[in-house]
Amino acid sequence: MQHPHFSPEILQPKQHEIVNPISWDSFRFFLAPLESNTDLALRALCYRYGADFTITEMVRVQALVRKNKSTWTRLCFDHQTPTLIQLLGNQESEIREFLQHFIPPQQFYGFNLNLSCPSKSIVKLGLGCALVKRVAKVQRIIDVFREFQYPICLKIRLGLNALEKQQKVYLRLIQNTTPDFFIVHARHGCQKYIEPADFSIYSECSETGKIIVANGDIMELQQIQYLQSCGIQGAMLGRGAIANPSIFQFLKGAMLEIGGQRSISVAQTTSIIQIKSEYLDLAKQYNSPEHCQRNVLRRFEQDFRTMDQNILQ
Ligand SMILES: Cc1cc2nc3c(=O)[nH]c(=O)nc-3n(C[C@H](O)[C@H](O)[C@H](O)COP(=O)(O)O)c2cc1C
Q1: What pLDDT is attached to residue 313?
Q2: Which residues have C-beta atoms less than 6 Å from ligand 1?
Q3: 3-class SS of residue 84
Q4: Sequence-ordered list of residues with C-beta below 8 angstroms from that of 45, at least 6 positions apart, any chain
């Protein structure tokens, strides 16, 4: 197990090893950040079952800068699983201070900035999806990551509320900022999971020419085919992935079959008994926090459409 480090000295930009780049030569699958669920064991399991990249649950830049121990311990890595670190922050000076001391681990693929959390307490601080409309501010934050040559992508909602969605603030942000790519959760900040994600927005997002990864309610091959037809380069799965992490293998296998590249069916999911046992082995190996283990075990095999309907996350 590895952790990113907080160097006691100030590191000069470029002093870190070059971080692994993400290549977009095929459709990419991501495991979504899920607070108190996507511990290293679940991320490693999803990678084993076909996720190309995983993202840590969100951590506050402020807590990292203050060297909060429990925040840093949430950022554990292994030697295989490609991982992005999700940050919640909006202060350029604080982000710079964090990056000046950050030593990335081996399987680090860059940062993901959270512009999607709709929780009231977060939005009140100008964080999460309150940032979607703040194009200039977001670009200044991106520029800080660029100073240090770190890959940076944004995870966004469609705006803070229905009005912002209607005004297409998300499109303005996509057109006018320059992260490496965007992950678009197709709901606005006042929508709970009981309302379906709006797949109709993806074409216009893709027409900007930017790299877009879709998120929200994805778990079927037909959805992936639709996204591909819109020019979307990847899909990020959250609740569908915890219900059965082998969904990644299933979807990838099914895509190969449709493409005529496989004659034998590989589009199968693994039994939940097997999944549970593999997760528990990994949780033991990586010393997963009890609360994560409890949450993950509770979610295996659950139909996510009946869970979380009234939460805002
Ligand atoms: C329990 C839970 C925790 C979440 N934690 C985070 C988080 O830490 N950061 C984040 O950007 N989104 C978080 N989300 C939102 C998911 O990443 C994702 O955008 C959302 O669940 C929609 O994708 P899905 O339909 O595939 O689950 C969370 C969602 C749930 C249900």
Answers
A1: 59
A2: 32-35, 37, 57-58, 86, 114, 116-117, 155, 185, 215-218, 237-240, 308, 313
A3: strand
A4: 245, 275, 278, 279, 282
Name beta bridge partners: 153: 112, 181
- What are the residues facing 115 on neighbouring strands? 156
Residue 262 CA to chain centroid, in angstroms?
Answer: 29
Of 266, 181, 251, residue with least CA distance to 218: 251
> CA 298 to CA 275: how far, in whole Å?
13
DSSP 8-state symbol, 2: B
pLDDT at 58 over 80: yes
DSSP 77: B
86 C-beta neighbours (distance < 10 Å), count = 24
Strand, coil or helix: what is 213? strand
Alpha carbon of 247 to ligand 1 centroid (Å): 17
Q: For 152-180, write each residue's pLDDT tens digit.
A: 999 999 999 999 999 999 999 999 999 99
- pLDDT (average), residues 33-55: 97
Confidence at residue 99, expressed as pLDDT on a 0 to 100 scale: 95
Q: What are phi and psi of 275, to 5 degrees?
A: -60, -45
The C-alpha atoms of residue 266 and residue 257 are separated, in whole angstroms, by 8
User: Quick check: pTM over 0.85?
Assistant: yes
Chain mean pLDDT for the chain: 91
Tokens of 233: 């380069």
Q: How far apart are the first and last CA of the chain?
A: 29
On the CB side of 193, CA atoms within 13 Å amount to 18
Question: Using the 8-state DSSP alphabet, how is residue 106 labeled?
Answer: T
Give residues with Cβ within 8 angstroms of 111, minimum separation 6: 84, 85, 86, 87, 145, 150, 151, 152, 153
Can you list the domains of the chain with their CATH numbers? 27-300 (3.20.20.70)
Partners of residue 6 on adjacent β-strands: 102
CA distance 85 to 309: 26
Ligand 1 atom 2: residue of nearest CA: 34
